[in-house]
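Researcher: Please translate sequence to structure tokens.
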Amino acid sequence: MRKGILGTAGRPRLTVFRSSKHIYAQLIDDSTGVTLAAASSASPSVRSGLGYGGNVKAAQAVGKQLAEAAKAKGIGTVAFDRGHYRYHGRVKALADAAREGGLQF
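Model: Translation complete:
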């Protein structure tokens, strides 16, 4: 999946990693190899409102936090990279929350 998706400074790649306990998302500019913004359910700002970081509610909170961080940096469009994960459950919840936060992909 990742082979066909490249992020640029104008349209970074939104990549998702999920473990059994947490979910992580990053905006990456592949042309320079720099992470522009990141959010995770392990961060203190998200973790304080959640009891557990490995569910759909946590994924929604991470998606909203990532969208806010992207808007603060002036990023409006991204290329979604779900990796090898299916597009359902936590991955879909994160993507939907990022869309509601204002990101387009």
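Researcher: Any highlights?
Model: The chain has a mean pLDDT of 91.
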